[in-house]
Amino acid sequence: MSIKQSVIKIEAIRGNIFLPELDLWLDPKGGKKNAYISHAHADHFSRSENIISSSETAHLLKSRFGVKSSSLSPVQIGQPFQLDQFEIQLFSAGHIVGSSMIFIRNRKTGATLLYTGDFKVDSSRTCKSASNCTAETLIMETTFGHPKYNFPTRKDTEKAILSFVNEALKNNQIPIIFCYSLGKAQEVSCIIGEKDIPILTHKSIFDMNEACREIGIVMPNSLQLSTSSSLSEHVVICPPSAGKLKFLSKLKNKRTAMISGWGIDESAKYRYKVDEVFPLSDHADYQQLITFVEKVNPKTVYTVHGFTERFAADLRREGRTAWSLFKSDQLELFDKRIKD
User: Which of 118, 125, 132, 326 is deepest in the core (most CB within 10 A)?
Assistant: First the structure.
């Protein structure tokens, strides 16, 4: 399927986004010749021949996935560069360490496009807030693009996390916090580390904390979790999969929590099988998505990930041209073109 409304041509191919004029794929699912990778989460990573990313993301791709330097074309965030007749600039996305958005301008026609990747508008301990700029075409993620997803303030959520930790320690329990190894784990480490509470981290988190430290992110010290670790009076930070580890699952004196934006759902703690879920998210919530669109002020919006059709429909009700890039409302888009 080819999108021809934008002067910068977009092709949606089997769940991937391709810009044929630049021979560039955006966060493709499989290896390509040239790919822009917005951040170092596995669901946005591919082993492509030439990877354009922020310098920080390039470092994390090497540390996390063993990507060779010869496959990386790192770019400083905020530093424009040229690709044929196109000027390209990366902006902070605020999602995780190193995450970026890509802004493209055709120098001949003046056409502009902004692709967000995953993003969060608030600044946090390890990320600057997402930048925004005006663009004619906006391709944006809408993970939480439903009105029911409006998060509490980060300050309130962080306070709740610390209260959970302190209450567990006070009762001689071991607080175990589950979160993804790259992104939320660094945020949680910093939140707890600031209070000088001893931390034990799973190897995957320990390694990512060190990788972030290598690119200048201030991270608290922690010990690496092992079967021989003394857990008493420590906070344990693990990826969700570590809940299946026998020496953790068999603990009787523990309190468990999950860190996830989906924690805003009342059923979340039952779904994650934990005592508490804290909605500390590395994505924008519904109202933040709406505000972001207003600031970019695009002529056309294409939505990807999450509530794509719902959010695009909400934008259309506000008078904007907006469509899910891969879902069924595209049929309505093409049908409308025929009728017009």
Answer: 118
